[in-house]
Amino acid sequence: LSCVLKYVFSNLLSLQCEQIIQHLNHKSPGVNTAELCQRIQASGIEINVGDLAKIANIISFLFSTAARNNLSTEELVTTLGNAVNALPKHAVQVIRHVWNEQGKSISVSEDARNTATVGQFVDMKWKLGVAMSSDTCRSLKYPYVTVTLKVADPSGQITDKSFEMTIPQFKNFFRQFKEMAAVLETV
Fold first, then answer.
1. Is residue 10 pLDDT above 50, yes or no?
2. What Pfam families has UniProt attached to this entry (predicted)?
3. At a CB cut-off of 8 Å and minimum separation 6, what does 80 contact?
4. Distance from the first to the final alpha carbon of the chain
5. In whole angstroms, what is the distance from residue 20 CA to residue 33 CA?
6. Please, what is the average pLDDT of the chain?
7. What fold is seen in the domain 118-185?
8. % of the chain surpassing 70 pLDDT
9. DSSP for 40-89, written as a single string
10. Confidence class of residue 84 from pLDDT cuts 50, 70 and 90?
11. What does the radius of gyration of the chain's CA atoms come to, in whole angstroms?
């Protein structure tokens, strides 16, 4: 069983490393750690989204630093071995393999080194609801709009941010989007 779990873990770590490299190459907006966490948990490995996000941040930092310093695979593995004693051997082998295969594809421009990054909008979903009643009021009939934004933070972690708006707030929100669209048409 231990060998099977190591194999599954190695495959999922490899997938996470590849997603991080795609993000660092600006080919994807980020790494969906919630989805990856579900896949890992389904395989029988106990992990939570927060811990997986920390691992993704560490690997992202590791790969981007190695790319900036133009490290070879052996230099990366040696540096990694000197800095982290608790990392399992099979995890180091996965990182070695992914870096060896795809690490040189990470392009680090001078502009990217000097630019402060912000989050990136990935997707938006909305729904209309009506609050019918509450503990203190029997008849509300209060319409609202729930908006869920999917955002990739600078490290590539994709998170959902939700908020509710009244109908007047939503109309203002919509008007501002129309104004942005009009400005973008002139560019």
1. yes
2. COMM_domain (PF07258)
3. 62, 87, 92, 95
4. 59
5. 11
6. 79
7. Nuclear Transport Factor 2; Chain: A, (3.10.450)
8. 83
9. HHHTT----HHHHHHHHHHHHHHHHHHHHTT--HHHHHHHHHHH-SSS-H
10. low
11. 22
Q: Could you report the per-residue pLDDT of 139-174, keeping only the tens digit for each?
A: 777 888 999 988 877 666 788 889 999 889 999 988
> 26 burial class (0-12, 13-18, 19+ CB within 10 angstroms)?
exposed
61: closest CA among 175, 155, 161, 183? Answer: 155
- 8 and 43 in contact (C-beta within 8 Å)? yes
Longest dimension (CA), the chain: 69
**CATH 3.10.450 occupies which residues in the chain?**
118-185
Cα 138 to the center of its chain, rounded Å: 42
Residue 49 in contact with residue 37, Cβ under 8 Å? yes
Q: Round to whole Å and give the CA distance between 155 and 21.
A: 11
